[in-house]
Amino acid sequence: MTQPPHDEPTARSQEELREQVEQTRHELGDTVQALADRADVKTRAREKAVAVREQAGAKAQEWSGQARTKAAHMAHTVEEKLPEPVKQKGAAAAQGAKEKAAQAEQVWQDKAPRQMRDHRAALLAGAGAVLVAALLIRRRGNR
Prior knowledge:
The structure is a single chain. This protein has helices at about 15-40, 40-80, 85-110, 115, 120-140. By secondary structure, it is mainly alpha-helical. The protein has a domain at about 65-140.
């Protein structure tokens, strides 16, 4: 808001003066509201938390997909190079891991908050793939 010099008239009539006062009130109200919004730390923090949570969820899904793809490729590469007895032991270990994963999923269902359960399939698949790959690599190193 700029103000005219004091020696110049600001309004030609009372009606113009009223309009200017009303406009100034409106501008002042907008300014006060903007300042109040900036000062409302709790709301700003909540909005930021929501944005961060959404961004983290998107990143987690992206990483989960990448991890699954990489783990599958790695497992396939390792599987091609393993001798048959090791493959059989690996299959048995994988079956045991699947059973443990099913038990872990049941515990997860019983105890995890609802928001976290929404991504459980991706998390379990990634963890299972990493576990199988680790077991296969470990067995190959023990030969």
